[in-house]
Amino acid sequence: MYRREAIHVGRAYSAHTRVSVKSLASPPSLTIALSKGRICDQALPLLSAAGIEPLEDLNTSRKLRIDTTLDQVKLLVIRATDVPVFVGHGAADLGIVGKDTLLEYDGAGLYEPLDLGIARCRLMVAERADAPVAQMPSGRRLRIATKYERTAHRHYAAKGQQVEIIKLYGSMELAPLVGLADCIVDLVDTGSTLAANGLVAVEHIADVSSHLVVNQASMKMKHAAVTAIIGLLANAVNERDRTAA
Ligand code: ATP
Ligand code: PRP
Q1: pTM for the whole structure
Q2: Pick the CATH number of 121-206 from 3.40.190.10, 3.40.50.2300, 3.10.290.10, 3.40.50.300
Q3: Which of 36, 54, 149, 237 could serve as a FRET partner for 43 with CA atoms 20 to 30 Å apart?
């Protein structure tokens, strides 16, 4: 268990905490949940810098629980929206998940100790460039298409505006074009999806990046191992940002 890597773990983390190599001598098993695609692609270099490399290609393997170069650390490959659910219920000890998904999650049981600064984008309100909401007849309730139901509700409630939320699971940008909604609440990165569909962003709701989340019970019960992983990933984030600066 951690045979080859125990010294590395202890050394790398020693700058941040008093966790010693000895405390990791018999570490408990740890699982880290993450999703395929964008988050996996951008998280893997950080995990690798932390000494955690999957022994199979996450994007192509049909296995959902993947061994890594750290004997006791396994990766769970799940849908992005399911990451807080697995971690909140303790089915995974740690997870990597977008702030957008965390804002939408209504469960408990999670700590959010580290912003990994990957998969950056913004959660925004967008509308048709040729049919601005400001020019719509007043008194009509706005229809908002989004997969971010709770976040959209909170956004409009804070403005004292009653709206109808239409829950979608993807392709939100289509909704205003076909008359399903007046606006959307969705993620914007380059803005090219909005532009390709004749939409413009009109309100900023939140900056989004992916965070490391930790099950609260795991933080207590597997404290040394969990804090070692947090420290290693924090080092990896700092090193990436230092070399990028
Ligand atoms: P699910 O499968 O659970 O519906 P998803 O299809 O939204 O999730 P992805 O498209 O891989 O999964 O997005 C995962 C996360 O990546 C999002 O929650 C968000 O934090 C971030 N993200 C999504 N789109 C972008 C983008 N265009 N640029 C940067 N980050 C993004
Ligand atoms: C995401 C998001 C937007 C798009 C924004 O979709 O839902 O549609 O990215 O990025 P842009 O501003 O750079 O165009 P994604 O590419 O993940 O496709 P999907 O969620 O519809 O599968």
Answers
A1: 0.90
A2: 3.40.190.10
A3: 149
